[in-house]
Predict the 3D structure of the following.
Amino acid sequence: MRKVAGQIRAIERMVDENTDCTEVLTQVISVRKALKSFAEVVINQHTKSCIAGACDPAEGQRRLKELSTVLKRYVE
């Protein structure tokens, strides 16, 4: 997340300095990729620890439904 925060600060500076749009967009693409990678890690960890590690099947189903709801918003 520190890397992403640093990239966003760099984008802010680029905008303030009227840097060429293609360079700014290249950095935006880089941030999007980093966030996507981070989201994949969070999803995997959540699946393993919160869903698979649920105390009972009903709790696992509830957590899976919650994840499904969030993932629908994520892909929009």
Q: What stands out?
A: The two ends are 22 Å apart (CA to CA).
